[in-house]
Amino acid sequence: MSKIISGFSKLTKEEKIDWLAKTYFNNQPEIIQTLKQYWNVDNKLQQLHDDFIENTISNFYMPYGIAPNFVINGRDYVIPMVVEESSVVAAASLVAKYWSTRGGFKTEVISTTKIGQVHFMFAGNKTDLETYFQEQKPKLHNATASITKNMEKRGGGILEIQLIDKTDKLANYYQLHVTFETKDSMGANFINSCLEAMANQFRNDKIDIVMSILSNYVPECIVKAEVSCKVEDLGGENPQKFAQKFEQAVKIAEIEPYRAVTHNKGIMNGIDAVVLATGNDFRAIEAGAHAYASKDGQYKSLTHCSVKDGVFKFWIEIPLALGTVGGLTSLHPMAKLSLDMMQKPSARNLMQIIATAGLAQNFAALRALTTKGIQHGHMKMHLQNILNQLGASIEEKEEITTYFESKTVSHSAVVDKFNEIRK
Predict the structure, then answer these.
(1) Strand partners, 157
(2) Inter-helix orientation angle 411-422/375-390, to 10°
(3) Count of other CB atoms within 10 angstroms of residue 64
(4) CA nearest neighbour of 113 among 215, 16, 236
């Protein structure tokens, strides 16, 4: 029997769940129970969540944690993080405290402009197109005046419109390449609305508009975060050796793509967690960051390290197109709380905070990799996850955790020890 359904979006939430349970779960009551147990008891709040997307039937919860002790440009911060990976928040917190006594994190926004493009085909004479473009340029600004009015009041708007010839890559392909400043808004809807207005103004019988869309590649929306101290202030048994191995680990990620991908994934552990907590678009951030890591023709590390004249320096430069107004940042109560927690940052300040989270996460990973190994911290959290799955009591958890302090954690070994205690 076919499982295709028409008009599904018009069903009530209850009807959607009933259909799902009947069609794919043989009417198992626990399926309905599982979905409904994650509904918010506040109907008004649940309705808000239901309206974020289409066909909502429940909520999918993620842990919401905080990493305290961040000092950024001399100011104290606690950073909210939404993430399911067990060691991320602990690592960020540990590194934040570590650098809080070594001068903290220094950050700066290098640039904040974003790009949108009108992609079109033109088979005629290029000189005629250039002449037409110059004639149309003032009209393109006029066509977007009603859209840009409020943004311009905040100091943003359209900064530049260029005609780009891409016919060497694809026959007859040109674009209007538009540079925007969107201030505290991420600006996706603003940019796309402007581009579509421009496309309608620019099109004629010889110009075939293909599409109008913002770019999530934002190499001119860059933030830098760094930490530095004297090598001897790094602490530990042999700070010189640690600094040397740390620098080597970063340089490996700068030239070896297989390592660079995992290296940058660790950075994004910290970045995505804060992006999610603030209701921003982590897919756009990921795409832009990884494209930036490939800007020189090979995928490379987003962080860099130097040990020179007795000074250890570690930094990141990364594109982050973020918003603190509009979208989920305004609608989702937890996103608003996250921004309030970070002292209501502007988009520029949020760029600096999130870059710091990424740098801290990378420092934690590299420190672990070049000293105890990455599994030491991971497996401690993994052990707790296994014990929770087994339903271990507090006393059992303490005994098993102590037992595995000097032993390798594996699921089967933990189960064996748990069963031994239970017997």
Answers:
(1) 181
(2) 40
(3) 16
(4) 215
The secondary element (H helix, E strand) that includes residue 40 is none
The pLDDT score that the predictor gives to residue 80 is: 98
Catalytic residue among 16, 183, 281, 300: 281
Element (H, E) at 325: none
Residue the block writes with tokens 């110009």: 207
Instruction: Write out the H or E segment, with its range, that includes residue 233.
Output: none
How far the first Cα of the chain sits from its last, in Å, is 49
pLDDT average per 10 residues of sequence, the chain (423 residues): 91 96 95 96 94 96 97 98 94 98 98 97 98 98 97 96 98 98 94 98 98 97 98 95 98 98 98 97 97 98 98 98 89 95 97 98 96 65 82 88 82 88 86
Catalytic residue among 97, 206, 224, 265: 265
DSSP code for 55: S
Active site residue 85: yes
Cα distances (angstroms) measured from residue 283 to each of 279, 287, 305, 320, 397: 12, 6, 27, 11, 37
Q: Which of 378, 380, 382, 417 is catalytic?
A: 378
Note the pTM of the prediction, 2 decimals.
0.89
Query: 281 an active-site residue?
Result: yes
Gap between the Cα atoms of 170 and 134, Å rounded: 23
Q: Supply the pLDDT for residue 382.
A: 73
Nearest residue to 319 (alpha-carbon basis) of 217, 249, 408, 166: 217
Helix (H, G, I), strand (E, B) or coil at 209: strand
Q: What is the dihedral of CA 137, 138, 142, 145, to 10 degrees?
A: 80
Which of 13, 18, 49, 85 is flagged as catalytic? Answer: 85
Whether 265 is a known active-site residue: answer yes
Give, to the nearest 10 degrees, the angle between helix 13-24 and helix 29-36.
140
- Please return the burial class of 171, using the count of CB atoms within 10 Å of its CB with bins 0-12, 13-18 and 19+: exposed
pLDDT of 380: 66
